[in-house]
What does this fold into?
Amino acid sequence: MACEYCQNYVRKHPCRLCECTCLEERIEAGVLELNAFMRDCFTPSMDREIDAHLKQDNCSSRSEFVMNALKFYVGYLSTKNASAFLPEVLSATLTGTLDGFAGRISSLLFKQGVDINLMAQIIAYDTDIDEGAYERLRGKAIRDMKRTNGRISFKDAMDFQKSV
It folds into this structure.
């Protein structure tokens, strides 16, 4: 299809639509039809590929398929919110899985916090320790957590206390 908006049209050498440098002008003028664009720009192999995926995307026409593809791509480019271009089922599944995971981690951390507080209360009840010793042990605990990335065992603490 020749583009009368193109400079080459005036020179009697109209360009193919897929090579046209003035597609925006055609769109603004309202003369660009999706069917003409598809007919002129898509190769036969692309046509076959689109036809093969029409049913998979629940589309009744090539135009609907191309519009869905464009919406997907525009959503992909214009937002960081994956739900704008991911299939709704995948987005809902991921959201549900992550929500469940977050709830489980929160519950486990709460239980762990309760147990640690209980142990601290029991040890404090039976321990005679001055403020300076407490501060030194707390500093050592912080350094150990950082050094081991949180992997401290009771045996490590027990061995340290026996060596002091």
Observations:
- The two ends are 89 Å apart (CA to CA).
